[in-house]
Amino acid sequence: MSELPNCPQCGSEYTYHDGSNFVCSLCAHEWSQDAVENNDDLKVVKDANGNVLQDGDTITVIKDLKVKGSSLVVKVGTRVKNIRLVEDDHDIDCKIDGIGAMKLKSEFVKKA
Prior knowledge:
mainly beta; three-stranded antiparallel beta sheet; 1 helix; about 5% helix; YjdM; YjdM_C; Alkylphosphonate utilization protein
């Protein structure tokens, strides 16, 4: 590699070598050279238990979730089929029976 990679955390171009790692001078994030070489630009989404989620999986809600702007609540144990993963803060798109289209955070679900 003749050119140093940008920081994966903050996107800064001000990075440097420190032994076998890269370091960002702005946010102090450190990462290995292997992580740069093996980077597939794919975000891995994991549930609350650490299981990897994929498109089409069935999940179960592990916490009562209030629906913003409504008096509805997604109850614990609600099963959601055929999820879709997206690049966002709420990384799961799905349809919940009785509520409709929703975006969920993966930290509040487990793989069924």
